[in-house]
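Why do we care about 3D structure at all? Because function follows from shape, and shape follows, mostly, from sequence. That is the central idea of this module. The next example makes it concrete: a single protein chain, its amino acid sequence, and then its structure expressed as tokens.
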Amino acid sequence: MRKLRTIEMQRLSVQEFRASEKLPLVVVLDDVRSLYNVGSLFRTADTFRVEALYLCGITATPPHAEIHKTALGAEESVVWKHFPTALEAVGHLKGTGYTVLGIEQVEGSQPLQCFAPDPQQRYAVVLGNEVKGVHQEVIDLCDGCLEIPQLGTKHSLNVSVAGALAIWEFARQLIFR
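And the structure:
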């Protein structure tokens, strides 16, 4: 076995990425404070051709060296928008026909692995602040919540890891089925 060189991987150019079909998923970041988490989510969004990232509240926006450090240029390929609050982003998404799901531990949440997205529907997932999670008023606007099962002693995952798992599950079911 031999590792592939970058040139052998035949990755898309930024222009080809922008023109390509996207996973029908918008990822909303609700007051994510770490620029490294934001950059990591840009990179994951690029990996699975997520439709867009919505950066809300205190979530930093490109250009920024700390975002670039983990995004590795994905902030140039992935479409992003800034909203003053996640409430406004969720309102916009719901008004344009998206099903909005929080990634959060709430009463009545559905395990992520049990969720079956409808291929005819467009979705958005909301990821919350590293300490406080998704704001309750944002949860109140969501159509539901998905929970990532956890078997250890910790009650949460890093937001970029949780986002990657959620994005992967949508890609697995909608693209790699």
